[in-house]
Amino acid sequence: MPTGRILLQLDFFEVTNKNIHPLNPTERQLFDYVVKNMDKVKDMSIQKLASERFLSTTTIFRFTQKLGFSGYAEFINSLLVTNHQTRHVEIPNVIHQKIYSEEYLKNIMEAVRVMPADKIAQVHKALDRKPHIYIITDEDACDIGRYCEKLFTGIGMHTYLSETAYQTQAMLDKIEDGDLLIVLSYSGQEPALVETVERIFLKKKPFLLSVTRADNNAIQNMSDVNFYIFADEIVLNNINLTSRVSIIIILELIVYGYTSAD
């Protein structure tokens, strides 16, 4: 009987987490692309992925091996498993299972482990300029916006949170080139939020830091730096109760890392 390793039931991030940091810049960009387009990449041949990213099939194959897979087939199998595991779920089908606590912690650890040091350094460099900081969120992240305001005010930054239409209008009039704009949105697709960012960019060019889910989305595509989170989408009584804990952790790591660097 064959004794080869089988990855069919292994999560993509469980395999790759320990192998992310040695990736070179091209490989890191490819990894980000895979994570943000997992639903699309899982159906791609190696030739299609290579063509999509303007790389050779040899480069793609070596990339999958560097991540910890024996080859492209194992790489795709892990994407299929991971994509299936992170689909939309509803309480009580998942939340009441003991295994959910493991998934909850795994999502948090994945968000932290895929925070590139160079992106954190970019944010810290932006903070070194002592910019005014403006925070906007979607409806589901407004409470986190208040905590974000507290975090950055706590390290001496002039920080403003937009919670109402008139505050947003005031922000549009005040924000300047080089200021720091923080956008917190799980979906990264909420139309009013996207429109606000587009209106800002018509007039000024702030540094845009966003935290969104991992798939490709409008806010992520406009950002100078995007950190992405993982979470099972949980809905109860038509209310979105998807965890935002990973957003908080990312913000804290940015701020705590900045204070320790001083």
List the helices and strands and how they pair.
Elements: H1 12-16, H2 25-36, H3 38-41, H4 46-52, H5 57-67, H6 72-85, E1 89-90, H7 99-113, H8 117-128, E2 133-137, H9 142-154, E3 159-161, H10 165-174, E4 180-184, H11 191-203, E5 207-213, H12 218-222, E6 225-229, E7 234-236, E8 239-240, H13 245-261
Parallel strand pairs: 1-7, 2-3, 2-4, 4-5, 5-6
Antiparallel strand pairs: 7-8
Helix pairs in contact: 4-5, 7-13, 9-13
- How would you name the oligomeric state of the polypeptide chains in this document? single chain
CATH architecture of the largest domain: 3-Layer(aba) Sandwich
Structural class: alpha/beta
Percentage of residues in DSSP E strands? 5-15%
Order of helices and strands: HHHHHHEHHEHEHEHEHEEEH
Overall geometry comes to: globular
Q: Provide the number of structural domains.
A: 2
What's the CATH topology name of the largest domain? Rossmann fold
